[in-house]
Amino acid sequence: MADTARGPEGTRTSKKDAGVLVIGLGRFGSAIAGTLDRLGQDVLAVEKSPELVAQWSGRIPLVEADCTNPEALEQLGARDFPVAVVGVGSYLEASVLITGNLVDLGTPQIWAKAVSAEHARILRRIGAHHIVLPEADAGARVAHLVSGKMLDYIEVEDGFTIVKMRPPRETQGFTIAQSKIRERYGVTVIGVKSPGLDFVYATPETRISANDLLIVSGHADLLERFSARP
């Protein structure tokens, strides 16, 4: 396996001044790298498997390298990236080694995939800034969606959550001020999307209709109770 950072044709890659370094082109890493590339963000993917490199060659910027070797990270210019994503999750030793190498390089933001709570604890301890548990996060999100009227669910941090939902019957036909949603339920209506109309940020005078979609923020427990209203 190559220890130096070279592209699929064997040419050494040049350093980048900014962007996102994505290490590992499994389902998680490739989704991140591909999306960033489509959004026009500077991204460089790194994968040690020649088969995956061949699969993604020409689709996203990438090099073949084994990032468990700190010299490989140095050669591909990892120090120049303000953000790195470690998408290697299934191989615990490789995940820990790569994350540790990025910590040693002083990467400002390290996002790392974990496959278990214990894996996440180890990654945090060695210095990863953000931990992602894709299966656990997706499972929790789907559980919230199937249990009530929520159409989308995003937990931001420490229980603070934003949801998209249908309005409870008791709010339909009334303004937000009249419904006293904040006072009664402890959640905040951020905006309203009516059929055929643009999204609008909510004000106390915003009137809610039966066919509207509400964007609501608050603690997850309070949102669960509000969305469960008939």
Structure keywords:
alpha/beta; five-stranded antiparallel β-sheet; 9 helices; 34% helix; 230 residues; Alpha-Beta Plaits
Topology, element by element:
Blueprint: E1 20-23, H1 27-38, E2 43-47, H2 50-56, E3 62-64, H3 70-75, E4 83-86, H4 92-105, E5 109-113, H5 117-126, E6 130-132, H6 134-146, E7 150-157, E8 160-165, H7 176-179, H8 181-185, E9 188-193, E10 200-201, E11 213-219, H9 220-227
Parallel strand pairs: 1-2, 1-4, 2-3, 4-5, 5-6
Antiparallel strand pairs: 7-8, 8-11, 9-10, 9-11
Helix pairs in contact: 4-5
Short description:
The protein has 230 residues and is an alpha/beta fold. The protein is 34% helix and 23% strand. The model is unreliable at 1-16 (pLDDT under 50).
Please identify the top-level CATH class of the largest domain.
Alpha Beta
- Provide the low-confidence segments as ranges: 1-16
Instruction: Give the termini distance in whole angstroms.
Output: 59 Å
How many domains? The number is 2
CATH third-level topology of the largest domain? Rossmann fold
Q: Helical region count?
A: 9
Percent of residues in helices comes to 25-40%
Taken as a percent bin, the fraction of beta residues is 15-25%
Provide the gyration radius in Å: 22 Å
- Largest sheet report: 6 strands, parallel
Q: What's the total number of strands?
A: 11
Shape summary: elongated
Oligomer: single chain
Question: SSE order, as H and E?
Answer: EHEHEHEHEHEHEEHHEEEH
- Reported CATH architecture of the largest domain: 3-Layer(aba) Sandwich
Strand line-up of the largest beta sheet:
3-2-1-4-5-6
Report the CATH superfamily of the largest domain.
NAD(P)-binding Rossmann-like Domain
- Average of per-residue pLDDT values: 86
Structural class: alpha/beta
